[in-house]
Design a protein that fits this description.
By secondary structure, this protein is an alpha+beta fold. It contains four helices and eight strands; from the N terminus they run βββαβββββααα. The strands form two sheets. The protein has a five-stranded antiparallel β-sheet. A three-stranded antiparallel β-sheet has the order 2-1-3. The structure holds zinc ion. Residues 49-202 form the MKRN2 opposite strand protein-like C-terminal domain.
Length: 205
């Protein structure tokens, strides 16, 4: 199933002053609020996408830390609901830890949120980045630190896996999950929730 695209665009009828927002696919029945002309795909209109915080492709997910609601889509996510977090390699493969141990997959991560990009940290060397993730997983599998038997919903979970990787790479050593959440997650999560609310509102117009 292709991911649901969640683009919002600003639309402006050239010569008129009021800009308005539309979701894709564009509804060509929509009218200019100033002159009531129907929107068309020609040079009389400018249509530009707002930056979408949610990943719309594997490329958007690659090389970083990604989060998503543990259950369902960000559209129905409320601040405080459980989150699942993972690290992604250059191919957009996502490594995470859950009740079944370390999992590597791409499915189920559509429309998730990338909260940090590792490319600059690895000097844009994607091989180095991929190798570090594979090496990290190999070590963890040997040490059994992230064995499925070790999983604890609150005390040893997907966040610990990601923080352990950041420690392993010398990116950062966090004293607590709260520090990590404050630095990377909270603000971005609020933005996503706002974006989804706007998207829903515009979709139901
Ligand atoms: Zn107009």
């Amino acid at each position: 199933m292709p991911p649901n695209k969640m683009y919002i665009s600003t639309v402006n009828h050239i010569g008129c002053t009021t800009r308005f927002l539309l979701v894709e696919p564009l509804n060509f029945k929509s009218k200019c609020p100033d002159c009531q002309a129907k929107i068309e795909k020609n040079e009389k209109w400018t249509i530009s996408r707002l930056p979408c915080p949610l990943a719309q492709s594997h490329e958007d997910l690659a090389c970083g830390i990604v989060i998503k609601p543990s259950n369902g889509h960000f559209k129905s996510y409320k601040l405080g609901d459980d989150l699942h977090i993972g690290i992604s390699n250059s191919q957009g493969l996502i490594y995470s830890f859950w009740t079944k141990g370390i999992e590597i997959d791409t499915s189920k991560w559509e429309n998730s949120l990338k909260i940090l990009d590792f490319r600059a940290f690895f000097f844009e060397n994607l091989n180095l980045l991929d190798n570090s993730m594979d090496f990290f997983v190999e070590i963890q599998r040997k040490m059994k630190k992230f064995d499925k038997s070790k999983y604890m919903e609150n005390d040893w979970n997907c966040f610990d896996f990601v923080m352990e990787y950041m420690k392993f790479t010398n990116y950062r050593n966090y004293r607590s999950k709260i520090d990590f959440l404050e630095e990377f997650v909270t603000k971005k999560l609020e933005n996503v929730v706002k974006y989804c609310m706007l998207f829903e509102k515009l979709s139901n117009k």
